[in-house]
Amino acid sequence: MQQYAFDMRNISIRYPHFAMENLNLSLAKGQVLGLVGVNGAGKSTTIRILMGLVKADAGQVDVLGYQLPAQQVQAKYDIGFASDDMRLYKNQTLQWHMDFIHSIFPNFDHGYAKDLLQRFELIADQKMKGLSHGQRVKACLLLVLARRPKLLVLDEPTTGLDPVARDEVITELADILRDDERSVLFSSHNTHDIEKLSDQIAFLDRGKLLALQDKESFVQSWARFRCQLLPQAQESVLGAVSIRRSGQLAEVITDQCSSDFAVVLHQAGFKVIEQHRMSLEEIFVANVKRNR
Amino acid sequence: MLNALDNTVMIKRLIVKDWQLVKKSLAAYMLGGVVVIGMMGMATPLMFNSGAIMMITLMIVIGARSAIELVVNEKKDQTLAFMMSLPVTAQDYALAKLGANLALYLVPWLLLVLGMLLVIVSTPVTNGVIPLVVLVSVFILLSYCCYLATALLTYSEGYTVTVMIITNLLLNGFIFWIIRMPAVHLTLEAPTASWNSTTLGLLAAGSVLVVVVLMLTAYLQKRKTSFL
Amino acid sequence: MSQGSGSTRLFYLDNLRALAMLAGVLFHAALAYSPMAQPFWPSADVLNHPLFDVFAWASHLFRMPVFFLLAGFFAAMLLHKYGEAVFWRNRLRRIGLPLLLFLPLLTLAMGAVIQFGLFHVQHKPPFLAFVQSMLSQAEPAAMPLSTMHLWFLYHLLFLYLLTWCGRILLNRKMLRWFSELKPNALVLLSIMACVPALYSVSVPFPAPEWIFPALWALWFYGVFFGLGYACFSMPALLAGFSPFRHYYLLLGAASYALYYALLPITLTPQSQPEGWLKLAITVLESCSAVLWTLCALLYARRWLDWDSRALAYLSKVSFWLYIVHLPLLLFVQFLLIDVQMALWVKFVISCGATLALSLLGFHILVAPTALVSILAGNRTHQA
Questions:
Q1: What range does the domain containing A284 cover?
Q2: Is the Cβ pair C213, B27 closer than 8 Å?
Q3: Nearest C-alpha in B relative to A57
Q4: Taking CB atoms and an 8 Å cut-off, how many pairs form between chains A and B?
Q5: Using one digit for the tens of pLDDT, what is the confidence trace for A13-26?
Q6: Is A127 helix (H, G, I), strand (E, B) or coil?
Q7: pLDDT digit string (tens) for C237-247?
Q8: Which one of B21, B87, B226 has the shortest CB-CB distance to A76?
Q9: Within a domain: residue C131?
Q10: How many degrees, rounded to 5, is the angle at CA A90 between CA A86 and CA A92?
């Protein structure tokens, strides 16, 4: 039987300018799932439903064996949540926050927290208002990670960081995630970050789940072909996501890339000149365009 | 498995956290309170009157500051997400906020009201003003409950400040209104506090309204489906 | 209050507290025979002598400030050793509870003693005569609510509250500024700080007995409380003051001599000095108060830091003595007013009898009961 860190079934929710219909999303234990979507795609809504902060109009949410939002209190003891718009109390020090978290989570690991302080180059006695955005994000991550939660939910943790800080956070996170066996849901509109950290990737757009696959499958199944158009070239090709023509040339994107696809193309009147692997960003964009 | 009792523990932790956050402001109010009561205790008309005005101001400031500092700023400063990541439901959180605010406001409010009554009882100020002072204090408490409810239900600075302004304007009207009541102004100079059916009715109505506003807040909070 | 190894017993603080308590009984006893206090002291005798004034007003200047200084010292020590929660529990039990318990009892006792005086004293002191005339009116005015001599406990509670405020509100920069002051600069600052508070009240400064916290008293005694707090927090401070103690004593004495010379002959509201004269008196009053209070602590540190059984006993009973001595003293002095006896004998008898009755009360009512844990203080240790 598959052990899920979380399992969302047929989730629907409606807001005046946003709707999510029948979303199904789950994460196996020990996996890192990257949730990619543009702003307003529904990433934060999904995460809020997952945290029990928003009650879906329909559907079932199961997190670490708890039904949400009814059992959110119990579930949250094992979920660590951090988001880009999360702030700590500006007039209090990081040490105060660590003590506060420790008072709630008795298994808060002070040794690990100390280690993270060093890794993130943070000072425990510094007040929050004196920290940069990058330091604040690191402080939030420290508080969450030192609890050693079974499920880690990170909502756009790298948004708004300068490139150096982002690289530092991602590098540390990658390091930390390798260290620990924990399930992670990581949302971002930045595909590079997702690519570095995730085992599985989900694309979300306008409240719909466009795709959910492991990273390797995405990279292997998606490809871009530069072709010369033969006189008998057909209008469409089976397995092509998009075909962009320009004079005698065409660019074909597929999500069913295999050695046979070149043959399929040729039979359809497309002579392959070049075949390219696609970056996750390109795959994401192609995916979104196909579904809009 | 956790039971409901554990959540009481969390609610208490949140209240203690709020106490730690406003300790500094509270210390300043306490300092102000001691000075104001000391001023009123000097028992000269000038000191008594300016002390009374400062006392009313202090009561309003404490209420306004605690509602803004503890509720509205939590959303504005984006610490609400941090709080909601902890093992609490939105209802637990709102209950903790209600508890923390009431405790942090009621204690200084009670101290100030008792201090003021003590001044009246032990100075040449006629005890006839006691009903007026009590009614005004209860009105201030009711106003506080109203904008605390607004803050808790909307987390909006705009709405909360609007309710604050309205209730403060109403306070002036209220004082003017009850002073003109024969049941109040005829007994102002009396040597003893004379409660009659009008003043007692107003006191009862004020107290009931305080309870109704608080219970309604808790009820509406429970019905909310979306938080953050 | 012992904690850990290497903690040293601060005998001199306990001994000083015990002696200051004893001085309190002598001061109140002396007021009955003081010419200046004739108009207002309830048990003012028909006989009086200016020497009692010299003694009474001199001790008045530093006796209560010494208590507040010690209270500040102990407050800092308690907070340092045990933290805030224990501090508040301890202070409410040792200060708040006795206040709540004894204020009503003392009010009743004092009322009874005054009644006794009204009925039995033939040569009525002006105060008793005044009370009698008030009572004989058709609508006697209500007596003002008073904390009596327990005002010390009452104001101390407010000072603890202000200490809490100060610990939260004062930042390190401000505290560093204070801690970097030279000892004599700190003395001068303390004297100057006392002047506005004392200027706002009559001379010699009265007891803030009214049910309200008196701002001047919180300010004036707060200076000494703060000094005591600083003495604990900065252990080098006392050593810094120490070499100057003889100068402080002499300067305090010179100030007092001038102060005493400038005091009005009787202490009625009409005879109070005003303007520059009042300011001069207040400055001298502040000088003596600060310098002598410090002297008391410095000389005690030098000469009283030993384990005396007599002083240990006196220290143990001092809180109880402080609480009950006043009604007992007034009662004894009412009995003595109409007795033909030399002034000094009356003074000695009233002091002796008050002490004897108080101690008897201690052994009957306090020592065998739960009250002993509240009223009989532990000895002081320095970590």
A1: 222-291
A2: no
A3: B225
A4: 72
A5: 998 888 888 899 99
A6: strand
A7: 999 999 999 99
A8: B87
A9: no
A10: 115
